[in-house]
Structure formats: structure tokens, C-alpha cells
Known about the structure:
- This protein is α+β, with helices and mostly antiparallel strands.
- It contains three helices and eleven strands; from the N terminus they run H-E-E-E-E-E-E-E-H-E-E-E-H-E.
- The chain has a four-stranded antiparallel β-sheet, with no helix packed on it. Strands 8-9-10-11 form a four-stranded mixed β-sheet, with helices on one face. Strands 3-6-7 form a three-stranded antiparallel β-sheet, with no helix packed on it.
- The longest helix has 30 residues, at 2-31.
Amino acid sequence: MKRKxxxxxxxxxxxxxxxxxxxxxxxxxxxxxxxxxxxEPIENSQILASNGEILIKVSxxxxxxxxxxxxxxxDSFGFNWQKELTASNVLSLVSPIDKTIMSVEEILLEVGxxxxxxxxxxxxxxxxxxxxxxxxxxxxxxxxxxxPSQEDIDYFREQEKIMDKEQPLRKELPFETDKFxxxxxxxxxxxxxxxKNGDKKEIEIEVDKWIEANGGNSGEHTIEWR
Length: 226
């Protein structure tokens, strides 16, 4: 009888311990919420119609191997997104684009998971001379994933102020000569410049002059040469 009592007590203790461990485990999981830590291209940068497609890489705070299909992407234009897991915590989003994208000045995007929005950001859509032709009339897509509210608009206006500081020359891009092409921003105050031909040191001087001539600060800007 005594042994039976001891056995029951041990069994109860094991059940309690297992329950506590499960509770701790579930608590830790809840604390580790899924977050977006990076988007590429960086938010507030430009989308060019002549690229033919838009490719966005979204990096998350933890692995999404088992959940990436449940992650939702919505936008204010109505893209046809194709999702692909390219790393354990990186989701690639691809959609074809054409000149109709120039009917808007900006694209608003959001990523959601389990009915919660975990990231909102915007891209600017400049006039793309390579796609110049018939005028593109503004369109209102009733099938777009979401229509921005006034709160969304206010938020993105604040983002535009940030963009003015981080990408002050964005409205002048791309700029191209027979020697080089100043393409786009890849990070705040960091430009991508393609060298075509000529002496790189001379091109560096010309790029600095162009930055200053368009109201930028060449001392604040850095260049990624390609």
C-alpha cells in the first residue's frame, strides 16, 4: 500500500512537471512574435516600369519554413504576387509590371500573418522615360488588395519626409551619360553607380559634381560602384 501511494505521488509530480514545461514552452513561443526585419529594395525607394517585374525580398526575425504559405502580401495597386521561400527566413515576392504602374505615384504595401499586419511600407513610382509613349490615365482598381485610409495616407506622408532625408536625389534618378549611370538608392544616402567607360577617378569627380549640382551633399553620400 505504501509503495502504491509513493508511485501515485511520483506520477502526479511527473504530470505537474510536464504541464509546467509545456506552459513555459508555449509562453516562450508567444513571446517570439514574427517580425519583418528588412525589405529589399529598401522602403521608400523607386520602382521602374521598364524593369518588367517587381522583386521584393522580405526578411523575418525567425524561420518561416513551416509558415511562409500563410504569410499574406497586399498592396494598393493590385499586383499578381508569386511567393517563394529563398532562405529559412526570407520570402521572395515577384510580380510582372508594365507602364500602367505609372498611373500612380506610389505603391503602398503590407505584410500580414494570422490576421495581423506586421509590416507596412511604400515605394515611389517615378515617370520612366524608357516606357514613354501614350499618356497613362490614372486608374482606380476596385480589385486592389486594399484601399488606403486617411490614417495610411498620413503615415506615408511622414515616411515621405524621412525619404527626403535618406534619398534626397530620388526624383533626379536615374541619370545617365556615355561614361556612367547613377541608377538608384540601395540604402539611405547610398547610390548605385554603373561605370560604362572612362577613368574611374574622373567619373568619381563627375558624380560628386552631379550630386552637388542637384542639391545633394557629396560628403554625406556613399557610392556602390558596379
